[in-house]
Design goal:
Structural class of chain B: mainly alpha
Shape of chain B: globular
Structural class of chain A: mainly alpha
Helix content of chain B: over 70%
Oligomer: heterodimer
Radius of gyration of chain B: 16 Å
Number of strands of chain A: 0
Low-confidence stretches of chain A: 25-30
Order of helices and strands of chain B: HHHHHHHH
Distance between the termini of chain A: 42 Å
């Protein structure tokens, strides 16, 4: 039981933490459509872990956070992306992204039940950083709308994955696994931070 | 502020925000004639499709009365706007050109309405549907006139619009239990976020 519910997910998450560094930077080319936009948020481990952590934390917090966070996050993230697209600078973006993994991972690890407005403010703040990074890196192209749709839907899907994984919270062993996952995300965040400031 | 006053201000603000603009559409030529070109145009122009879907979802979330009203008012207003656009394009061709695209605005406003799950009266829903229909219909009418598809192109667009609006509103009205309502709101937030991003793209 312990092997199947804790050890295996833990091993998988541990292996995930040793994956390649954050590559949320498109190599070049044009914003040609939906699939290019869809691939952008899932191409960087830092973004992926933070988005999944939002879902995990929402699942841990339960109602209404489980739906408020995924409803508000895309809009706030798009606001950050708008700033990036307009060339308005935001200091410490990479540090902010790394901090998001640390803070959200730690929140999941400790199982801290923050008040809703505090959770929303934390997630909203980090959404600005993630959005700004995306907005700055978006390639020029003809079909901005399809690209944007792919980009937003991919982010929403990452939240949904986090919420789905967070559903294990209802079982005692699942709660342990969830905390372990939070710890792994937090550690990955430390790595991202080290990489950002090094 | 009384609810009635708030509704009036919201309706006026929405109307003012949707100032007329020139069409930046490109007609899809199916080879099957203007009606099918219009249908294809609507299906492939997400700047038109997404606000219509968002409004249909919003109306569906408000109940079957709102859904039924929007399913008729939006296509009718779109048709009127389209005919006005064709007439205006014929009468004053020099007026339409050089105006920045505002396709992001209906997406942002209507997606935001769905995400917020705002409770409004039937009058507000009807006004929003009429304004949106006239606004986008006008742009479509100009585009159809420019492409030579004319009234039949607009009829194709309105036919497709009616089907999409009726289906989306019916689905939203029928599926509202628990997580389903949340899923609609998430869809609304995605549309609003895409509108915001589209604004960034247009200003970039």
């Amino acid at each position: 039981m312990f092997r199947s519910t804790v050890l295996r997910p833990f091993t998988m998450l541990l292996l995930g933490a040793f994956a390649t560094p954050a590559l949320a930077h498109i190599e070049g080319g044009q914003a040609t459509g939906f699939l290019t936009g869809f691939a952008h948020p899932i191409s960087g481990l830092d973004h992926v872990l933070a988005m999944v952590a939002v879902g995990l934390w929402g699942a841990q917090l339960g109602l209404p956070a489980i739906w408020i966070l995924p409803v508000t996050f895309p809009i706030v993230m798009a606001l950050g992306a708008l700033l990036g697209l307009l060339g308005i600078p935001l200091p410490g973006v990479e540090i902010g992204i790394a901090a998001s993994a640390i803070v959200l991972g730690t929140a999941v690890l400790t199982g801290r039940r923050a008040p809703l407005f505090v959770a929303a403010a934390i997630v909203g703040l980090f959404a600005i950083f993630h959005g700004h990074a995306h907005g700055t890196e978006l390639p020029p192209g003809e079909n901005g709308l399809l690209y944007s749709l792919g980009f937003v839907i991919a982010t929403g899907c990452l939240h949904a994955i986090g919420i789905a994984i967070g559903a294990v919270h209802r079982w005692p062993s699942g709660q342990v696994a969830l905390r372990v996952a939070g710890g792994v995300i937090g550690l990955a965040g430390v790595f991202f931070l080290w990489r950002a400031v090094a | 502020m009384t609810p009635r006053r708030a509704e009036t201000i919201a309706a006026l603000g929405f109307t003012l925000a949707l100032s007329p603009l020139s069409a930046h559409a490109h007609l899809v030529e199916t080879g099957l004639g203007p009606v099918y070109d219009g249908i294809a145009h609507f299906a492939l122009t997400f700047e038109d499709l997404l606000p219509a879907v968002a409004l249909a979802i919003f109306a569906g979330l408000r109940g079957t009365d709102h859904a039924r009203r929007v399913a008729w008012v939006l296509p009718l207003a779109w048709l009127l706007g389209g005919l006005a656009g064709i007439a205006a394009r014929s009468a004053m061709p020099q007026m339409f050109g050089g105006v920045p695209p505002l396709g992001w605005l209906p997406m942002l406003l209507l997606g935001g309405l769905v995400a917020a799950d705002l409770k409004v009266s039937m009058a507000v829903t009807t006004t929003v549907a009429a304004v949106l229909g006239l606004f986008l219909g006008l742009a479509n009418g100009v585009a159809m006139a420019q492409a030579g598809a004319g009234t039949r192109g607009v009829l194709g667009i309105v036919s497709a619009l009616f089907v999409v609006t009726a289906l989306a509103a019916a689905c939203a009205a029928a599926w509202q239990s628990g997580w389903q309502r949340i899923a609609w709101r998430v869809v609304g937030s995605w549309i609003a976020a895409s509108g915001l991003l589209l604004l960034g793209w247009s200003l970039r």
